Amino acid sequence: MKKHILFFLLHLYTFSVYPQLFFNEVSSSFDFNHSYFQGISGAGLSFADFNNDGLDDISIPTNGEKSIFFFKNDGTKLISQNFNISYPYQVKQILWIDYDNDNDKDLYLTSFNGKNKLFENDGFFYFNDVTNLLNLPDSISNSFGSSWADINNDGYIDLLQTYRTSDTLSNTIKIFLSDSALSFHEITSTTNISELSKLPFCASFVDIDNNNLLDLYIANDKSSGNSMYYNNGNLSFNNISESSNTGVDMDAMSVTIGDFNNDQYFDIYSTNLEEGNKFFVNNKDLTFTENAQNLGVSFNGQAWGSQFEDFDLDGYEDLYVSGALVGSDNPSSAFYSNIFGKYFEENNSVGLGIDTVESYSNAIGDIDNNGIPDIAVLNMFPHRSFIFKNTYSGNNNWLKLNIKGLTSNKDAYGARLVLYSGDLVLTRAKFSTEGYLSQNSDNIFFGLGENNSIDSLFIYWPSGAKDRLYDLGVNEIISINEGSTSEKPIIYSNKLSLCDGETMFLETGFYEKYLWSNGDTTQKIEISSPGQYYVSVYDQLNNISTSDTIYISNASPPQFTLNVKNITSDHSSSIEVIGLDTLNNYYVSLDNGPFIRNNLFIPNISSGSHQITVRDINGCESSQLFEIINIVKNENNPDFNNKSIARKWIEVLLEAIRNDLARPPIHARNLFHLSSIMYDALVIDKKVNQNIEISPFLLNNTINEESFVFDFPQPNNDQEYIEKVISYSAYNFIRHRFKNSVGIVETYKMIDSLMVSLDYDINYNKLDYLSGDPKSIGNYLAELYIDYGFVDNSNEINDYSSNYYKPVNPPLDLSKNGNPDIIDPNRWQPLKILNFIDQSGNLIEGIPEFISPEWGNVLPFALSEEDLVLKVRDDDIYKVYHDPGVPPLLDTIGQGELDSLFKSSFSMVSIWGSHLDKDDGILWDISPNSIGNLESYPENILEFHSLYDYFNGGDVSTGFDINPFTNQKYEEQIVPRGDYTRVLAEFWADGPDSETPPGHWFVILNEVNDDNNLVKRFEGEGEELSDLEWDIKSYFLLGGAMHDVAISAWGIKGYYDYPRPISVIRYLSEKGQSSYPDSINYNPNGIKLIDNYIETVGPQDPLLGDNNENLGKIKLYTWKGFTDNSVSEKEEKGSGWILAEQWWPYQRPSFVTPPFAGYVSGHSTYSRAASVILEKITGSKFFPGGIGEFEISKNNFLVFENGPSVDMKLQWATYKDAADQCSLSRIWGGIHPYIDDIPGRKIGTEIGFDAFEYGKSLFEEINMITKSYENNLNNLKVYPNPITANNYMTIVNETDKKIKKISLINFLGKTVFDQNVNIDSKKNRLNINKLPHGIYLLRIIFSDDTMKTTKIVISR
């Protein structure tokens, strides 16, 4: 009968309590915007108060631009903090701990692919890396969890660190004992803790038998066996895993400690994969019973984080579990209500049902400081992390405690609390880490049920001390210091000095009555004067006891003056704090921001009124107000004010590229993405403020199942609306993309300076774009593009590294002659160069890897599936757009026609090297009068050579008769050929200032846009556009083309893996000559001899060598390079005979050749595509005024040689002429044979035209598109358009042609709908209900293979 009554009561309890417990997801209202980008096995988070203000803050890793976000809780919002912590690794665990007992929180971080680090907080949130100083490991390791605890109860916390290793003889656990926080020393070997061949995730110290010694439980992955160690009390442990029944084999992820049945002994919960979590119930005799299934908490999903907490305040700890499976049909998360300590019941009615995303860790805190526990959950990108606020509304009471050690460690880790209230006996403990790699609030939460009083509270401190408190109130937040009930009272204070004009608090323990030396009679007093203080306390019998006297000294605040600089054309704004004693440390805060140690000079301050605050080592502060005036924006500064906002940010990006590593495809992507951001900003401005609708690029499109949602806000009359949208988006985007740049300091200074010059706040970080604030819109737009960058297949998250490409050839060691080690001369070969310096002047350590061989995988702009071929090499798939076919290869067996073409093409590179001598007596007219005006390129690979003058250099172009704008002949420009060729090789190698080829064409576009002869009419027709709209559209089109070129060219490079001249010329020459079988040094795989250019060393040859060692070797008449050590680096090398084994391209000795394959030429492809874009947008193939020019000063241009010997101008009549000249420059530069060139030019042509047409289609007004299709499609009607998703589209064909095929292509160029039409029906109805909303191209192919296209809009 009792059993039935209990069952009835339990279910009555369950029914009545559930509606009172509910969680609201409040991350948005707290401005908490976070995702964790995919890293190995997720990460943990901290919900602990890091600034000791009583409010629980959140610290959470990102695996993104910043490795960690620190959010300070002000009670209503989470405010991002910037600490001076540099941690460029994948963070796994964040723990705020006070390792040195100085009353401020220090920071410990673990990493799976980096260094574990301990940062000391000097008291004012300035952090010092003390890892190495304190003798902790400071090297790269694979780590997950750590745990801090005082294992010997000496008052200082010690460190346990887990490791992952393939070495089966290495211990995966290390214990570091603190020596009074002055240093740590490893004691693992003497502790008897041995975890060999284990894979630990998390570990927790827990006192399993209440003997005031911390035992240890370790969660090990991959069925390597969990472990339990019993603390013997002498810094040694016994392994009781088997005898305690806790050493089970499982895929253990986390350890969670709680007393679920209130028997005063701690139980252990460990998460697992689908086999089910484990719950070890403490039997009070050093054994446990695993009972998860019977208790209803096995979960049976991919569980990671878990936490015990009494969320409904009924006196029994509930359980929350997070998992990695996605979707409501999977066990993605679970909330288990504790039913009177008897069992758990899964509860789906408490508001946590939205946690159906990929989650790893969770942590407990009090987000609004109302005494009731809340939950934070770390979610994987693209899902945002959660904050679940507990809105419990029942009648249960609570108590929230914050305890602090005195003789024990300040954090009180290891303290055990036992609370008695009515029939409840509740036990809690303080841990440094709980759940999966996470840290809970420092506060301890008690639910009291409906009990309205607390009989007693016992605190068992690690030091052995015990405090007993009686008759505590309920629904209170109480702080308790160790010794608060000692017979002799203790005065607690965090400092012993008082600053002028300030107050401070002194407090003591819990007694019946108080009498302070100043007459106050409360437990806690506020003082404003220095002096001597003591307190007398009385018990219930009126017995008195008096504390020791403490001395509070006086301290004066720092005195200083300011040197203020306003924003001018010559410099950005700044302030300098002067007049301080520089022998002391000071902490400086601008506008109530973070205090930074000795930050006495602050640049880039926005205009307006500001406050500077200086704090000294005593914590005393003084402040001054100052004002910054923006003179730039208000003065007549044409260089600044006459440039559009788009132009300003593109120029900043170009400079950032110059300061970064030279990686052409990556920077083409950066230019494209920023151009697209600005284009989408234009779309927003037109829609919101002009009611004109054009198609966006990214907004409201879905890519790789990620939707880039943008709901257009209401109109805004901000006069700088689009300027702010562009600036805030560009600023955040560049900060993100260049966060790991070698030039980060200069780049960040530059973008900060521009924002300041614009009078925009660089610290504004709100994302509430629906408010209509253009700053928030800009921030949100940047977030969309940052997210897009992680799903576009570029592998940005791993710094664009290759996933499978490996070179087949060993590196060519350029400190030696020849190329003896190459394996396959038809494949690319890395270069070993002492002190390799890339095009942008950056020193690259080691052997440079192939840059972006898998770039064909990246999502394109206008490339389509029709352009794509999937190639397989070495079992790896390469995406190749615009496949040019197999290039000529060296045939080591047959030596056929293509073998000869291979040799001839590479030999021409050496021959053209002979043109790099200004003293050879050859003069050329380099004006458009004689150069340019190529009409076409050869189609057949066997005819490619006909485009070039094989021996004299250049191509077969003949120039122009007249300038079509002036109707005058172009003025001749006669210069030494050797000057012209060297200038070309240098100019086009890196652009004018090393912004790589795609950036170089943006520079040329800017110069075109600045030309007074240019009329900014799109395609040369219609109304003249504003500078801003012209810049945005031209950048967008050029950026899209450059991005597609990178995808196509580098996809081709990666697959065909074609060699460079430096490898081939040395290889062929080392084999010998292949012209005369009966002659010396013959080899059919050798180089072909050419009189006066490629010969063998004869008996009387100056190159013969002292011992005739070079007899019969191949010699080349070419640029001498660096073969003569007596010639200084800047001295002109000239041309002459050199040994072929020493051949060198016309490049710096620290660079030699770009680190990627040759075929096809990126320069040729980029340049031809860019020239097409410029032709199309301007409506003319000619530069404005019929000529484009770049001035070259005598002896002031070449980098590694003197020269040129005369002043000259690079001149081009047409954009195509400039592109063709660029292609030739790479042959003279020794970088490409002509085999690489012409296919690149052809591919560039196609890409340029396709990119322009696709971009142009986006510019069309949607309301114009949807009006009538009879004119556009020759009597074709398409309706409805826009069309609502989950609907049908109808095509009415009133032409005299039969429709053969209908396709829909999304904005990534992917065909998402393809239907053959085999009936004569004039009306075709298409079901598009599975397509996401967005912009599509409708392609209709008729029976005669003619085609019509138009744009279709699928709306929500």
Query: In what order do the strands lie side by side in the largest sheet?
Result: 68-74-73-70-71
Query: What is the molecular shape?
Result: elongated
* Model regions low in confidence, pLDDT < 50 over at least 5 residues: 1-18, 1264-1274
Instruction: Report the total helices.
Output: 19
Major β-sheet, in short? 5 strands, mixed
Range of helix content: 10-25%
> What is the alpha-carbon Rg in Å?
37 Å
Task: Compose a concise summary of this entry.
The protein is α+β, with helices and mostly antiparallel strands. 20% of the residues lie in helices and 26% in strands. The longest helix is centred in the C-terminal third of the chain and has 30 residues, at 1027-1056.
Overview of this structure, please?
By secondary structure, this protein is of the alpha+beta class. It contains 19 helices and 74 strands. The strands form 24 sheets. The chain has a five-stranded mixed β-sheet, with no helix packed on it. It has a four-stranded antiparallel β-sheet with strand order 1-29-28-27, with no helix packed on it. A four-stranded antiparallel β-sheet has the order 5-6-8-9, with no helix packed on it. A hairpin with a 6-residue loop joins strand 16 (215-220) and strand 17 (227-231). Helix 11 crosses helix 15 and helix 16 runs parallel beside helix 18. It is elongated, with a radius of gyration of 37 Å.
